[in-house]
Amino acid sequence: MTAYAIAYLRNIKFGDDIIEYLQRVDATLAPYDGHFIVHGDDAEPIEGEWSGAPIVIEFPDYDHLRGWYDSPAYREILHLRTDNADSTVVFVNGCGRDHKATDVLV
Predict the structure, then answer these.
(1) Residue 36 carries which DSSP code?
(2) CATH number for the domain including 76?
(3) Which residue, 25, 44, 78, 88, is most buried by CB atoms nearer than 10 A?
(4) Are strands 86-93 and 53-59 parallel, antiparallel or unpaired?
């Protein structure tokens, strides 16, 4: 089942470290078949407060997602982001296209 890394970044200090992170992160995703499906585009707050950059990275499954996040290549650059932005990051499994809202009641 598809899995997602979802991040909400705020107070990003755009400097050399963030630029280096952006230049290197794609190479860390490739071995795990991860790819961005949302990457920092302006978000339109419809309900509640929002002042940051949304990021969603899709992986084939949860094992690929964890493998990427725990990989030496990603761990080497992680601090470039965490030292220069406030962030909330969650991992979540996706659901199939045939999922219905009431499926969670079972």
Answers:
(1) E
(2) 3.30.70.100
(3) 25
(4) unpaired
